[in-house]
Structures are given as C-alpha cells and as structure tokens.
Amino acid sequence: MRVTRPHHRWSTAAAFSLVELSLGLALVSGLMVTLLLMLNLHVTFVGMVRSQDFLLRDAPRVGGLLNRLLVQTDHFFIYADAAAAVDPAAVPVVSGTAVKLFFRRADGDTVARTLVFAPPAPEDPGSGTLRLASPENPVGWPVSRALAGATFWLEDGLLKVRLLGPRGEELTYTGGGR
Predict the structure, then answer these.
(1) CA distance 82 to 80
(2) Containing H/E element for 76?
(3) Are residues 154 and 170 part of one domain?
(4) 99 plus 131 within the same structural domain
(5) Same structural domain for residues 9 and 70?
(6) 5 strand-pairing partners
(7) Of 11, 48, 75, 146, which has the highest C-beta tally within 10 A?
C-alpha cells in the first residue's frame, strides 16, 4: 500500500509503509539464508565427491585393466614381494604382493608380465603404486599410484586381487588361468 503525503503544500512524494519495508527486508533476509544454506550443501557435496576420488576415477580404470589381464592369463604364480617375483629361484606362495602372469601368444609362445605392489611411504598412506612390468621394461608402468595396499592370493584355483584405496575403500577382482 502506498501512502502519499504532502511534504509541502505544492508537492507530493510516494513512500512505503513500515509494514511493507519490514516485509521486504524479511523476504530478502530469508532468500539470503536459503542461498547460504544451498552454498553450504554444495560445498559439502563437492567435498564428499572429492573424498571418493579413488572410486570415481582410479577404480574403473584399474578394474578394466585387471579384468582384461586376468581373463587373458594362461597361468600365474604369486610371490611374496617384487624381489621374489624376478628371482628365478623363488618359490611361489599362496598370498603375496606380486604376481607373475603368463600369456600365450597366437604363435604358441608364452610371455610373462609381473604385477607388483610397491608399499606407500609412511607419511602418505595412500601413495602405494601398482605396476605392470615385463622383461623388456623391468621398471614397468604404473597402473595406479593411489593405493594403500594390494594383495594377490589363490582361492579355489582362481587368482584374487584385493586393492585398498587411500580412504579404506576395498575392491576385489577375481580371474585366473584359462
């Protein structure tokens, strides 16, 4: 409601009543509080998504690669660690942090690849590296650099791989010889 009051005898000026000003101020304040709550919710959601970065980005890529490798494997040997995996005199074990995968080529030859987990540094528990190495490239290339742990073990004739993410995420893959 607008009230017109003459300021002088010859002029009139429009003005808002005190109720209208209070109502407008309350609406703007309510809108600001709602926007701040929505911003807080957005920041919280973005933080939750970033905390699950391993599951959103690394896990699908690593899972795809491991699934392809494990399906194509002809046979495999599990070793306690990386040093044992490259030692020809080492004895395979039932559970370890390295596995030697053997693939049969179309010409009948067999090629070996080694999947090795390098433990993380003590000050950064999510910095362990899973590497795929070959005799031509013994250093290998990193499959993932964001692991807290990786274990290979034999269960019912199948190779199982458990990967631990930097925030305790646990993924298990299964595959093995044909």
Answers:
(1) 7
(2) strand 75-79
(3) yes
(4) yes
(5) no
(6) 13
(7) 146
**Owning domain of residue 164:** 53-175
CA-to-CA distance for 110 and 73, rounded, in angstroms? 10
What DSSP state is assigned to residue 166? T
pTM given for the model: 0.71
Q: Is the predicted pLDDT of residue 74 greater than 80, yes or no?
A: yes
| Look-up of token digits 């194509």 | 72
In whole numbers, what is the pLDDT of the chain averaged over residues? 87
Token pair of 76 as six digits: 């495999």
Q: Residues near 144 by Cβ (< 8 Å), separated by ≥ 6? A: 58, 61, 62, 129, 130, 163
Q: What whole-number distance in Å separates Cα of residue 140 and Cα of residue 160? A: 21
Do 67 and 34 share a structural domain?
Answer: no
pLDDT (0 to 100) of residue 157: 86
Mean pLDDT over 36-62 rounds to 89
